[in-house]
Amino acid sequence: MLSYAEVRVPATSANLGPGFDCLGIALEIWNTVRLEAGSSGVTVSGEGEGSLSLGRDNLVFRAAESLFRAIGKPTPQLSLTCDNAIPLGRGLGSSSAAAVGGLVAANALCENPLTQDEVLALAVEIEGHPDNVTPALLGGCQIVVQDGEELVTSAVPLASDLWAVLYIPSQQMPTQQARGLLGPTVSRADAVFNMGRAALLVNALSTGDVSLLRTATQDRLHQPARGVLFPAMARIIRAALDAGAVGAFLSGAGSTILALTVDREMTVGYEMADMADKAGVPGDVKVTKVSPQGAHVVSEG
Ligand code: HSE
Questions:
Q1: Which residue(s) pair with 23 in the sheet?
Q2: Residue 55 Cα to ligand 1 middle (Å)
Q3: Is this structure's pTM higher than 0.90?
Q4: Which end of the chain has less neighbouring CB within 10 Å, N or C?
């Protein structure tokens, strides 16, 4: 076993509009996780400092422990240091990043006994949202579907260099609450609406035909219902599109709104913030990109 491993793990945005529970992208916003053998304690800086647990129930720590369990070894004395840039409860995959970060760091510390597929399966078991976990581990844009016991993933090649402009409300939108708003069934018309758009979206991204993205990022399976918790959502999405974004949607279960742009990224961010301000939704704009890279080791020894 090594004495320490430090990994970076990206934020993610799930659903991308129509791909509810089966599409996600990694973003260039990174948490750092460092595990050291032989000492103990949990430290958190940045996002979640003062609110995330510093005990053994910390999600990153639990993920690390589950790796030791999976390989049949007792968890050694471990100290964990987290430096977080991913805001919590905003639909940017902070809990997936925690699970993936803990697993990848522990796997590196043990000199990689588990394959990437095994790490993925464990991360999904811990966190429960494959559409965030998969891009957090593998990077880029990922399709993920469950086939019986098997998780089938496929990377969507991205033909255009798009900006991801985020409007991140100050208000959190807990995933469980946002999922609780969704009905148990959907109409055939809504299913067809989303299936067509999800297919269109994959084609738009992989061919670079960004003119399709405005239609391809529309959704009827989760955003309208979630609008009850976040009435200004539709107006902020509209403001982004009116300002020149090629597509826009609720990121994961919210509360972040993500707009895709080829240019005018500052204007799009400004107009989203202006609309949010008028609607009484305080928050921040962040301009980022899709990260081709997922979780990776930055140093070990
Ligand atoms: N696809 C999930 C949802 C993502 O929208 O509820 C949760 O992070």
A1: 143
A2: 27
A3: yes
A4: C
